[in-house]
Amino acid sequence: MSISQSTITVGKSVVAMPRRRQAWYGSVPRGDFYWALAFALPYAAVFVAFVVYPIMYGFWLGRSPALYVELLEDPTFLTTVANTLIYVLIGVNLKMAIAFLLSGFFYRKSWWTKGLLVIFILPWAMPALPAFLSIHWLLMGEWGFLNALLDQLFGVEGPHYLNDRWPGILSNMAAYNWKNTPFWTVIFLAGRMAIPTELYEASAVDGAKRFQIFRHITMPLMAQLYLVSTLLATVFALGDFNSVFFVTGGGPAMSTEVMATLGIRYAFTLGDPPLGVAAVLTTLPLLLPLVLLLMHLLRKQEMQL
């Protein structure tokens, strides 16, 4: 391997001086490279310890096909699959539609609308535990605040929201949407504010009505954001544990469980971690296509910018 040289002039003589060979890591000075390495190594170690290792260990725990046969033989698992699909498909789409409509309401240029927006985002800003526990005590049969209020004001005995499967599922979805709808409303509001006002003004001058403006301007410009947000909300809902666990607790008789809570119950309550991991891994056929589609949309949007 040849070493490049440089020359210096000593009197009338030209002396060739060997020049330091360039390091394999490019033109970065050796000291800076070592400092960068020392700075990055702790983060890499944390990533491996808390992301790579748990994922790989989880796949190792759920590697046995016998676990999935056992899951299919459990009637609770099939009920949980149906609950999860209802919880995700209906709950997420309803939440996103409401958030989109509310973003149009909060887009209004008035001071009282901004004040309502501050109050509206308070559920999302609250910690999850007290928020969902308060909903649990609100809906607790004859001892709950809602039924007690109905009895005091109208003499009516309210329904037992948490004692049947379908009221319990609806209660879980309502609690989750109440907690998270403000976040997506703010996202859609930011998207509306990014649309140039000149488009709306020109449409109004041309005599376009509100529905026509919404159909031909707002919807096409917000479609990409709406789709990406819906995919993200679906991924988040698949992993949601707090709302179901603290509102209905998966009851009655495990009839309102979703995959996130069922996996925890198998792993810790029943003391069978491999079965709990296997239950969670069954969501991968739904989760992986969503993640790949989301990455494709984000890459496409980045290329357009």
Any overview of this molecule?
The chain is 73% helix and 4% strand. The longest helix is centred in the first third of the chain and has 32 residues, at 30-61. Strands 1-2 form a two-stranded antiparallel ribbon. The two termini are 45 Å apart. It is mainly α and 305 residues long. Strand 1 (5-10) and strand 2 (13-18) form a beta hairpin. Helix 3 (75-106) runs parallel beside helix 8. It folds into two domains: 27-61; 74-304, MetI-like (MetI-like fold).
Keyword list:
mainly alpha, disordered N terminus, 305 residues, 73% helix, MetI-like fold
Summarize the structure.
This protein has about 300 residues and is mainly α. The chain has 14 helices and two strands; from the N terminus they run ββαααααααααααααα. A hairpin with a 2-residue loop joins strand 1 (about 5-10) and strand 2.
Residue stretches low in confidence (pLDDT < 50, at least 5 long) are 1-5
Output the helix-strand order: EEHHHHHHHHHHHHHH
- The structural class is mainly alpha
What's the CATH H-level superfamily name of the largest domain? Answer: MetI-like
The total tally of domains equals 2
- Rounded to an integer in angstroms, the radius of gyration calculated over CA atoms is 29 Å
Contiguous helical run count: 14
Beta-strand percent range: under 5%
Give the topology.
Elements: E1 5-10, E2 13-18, H1 30-61, H2 65-73, H3 75-106, H4 111-120, H5 122-125, H6 128-138, H7 145-154, H8 165-193, H9 197-205, H10 210-238, H11 242-247, H12 259-269, H13 273-281, H14 284-304
Antiparallel strand pairs: 1-2
Helix pairs in contact: 2-13, 3-8, 3-10, 8-10, 10-14, 12-13
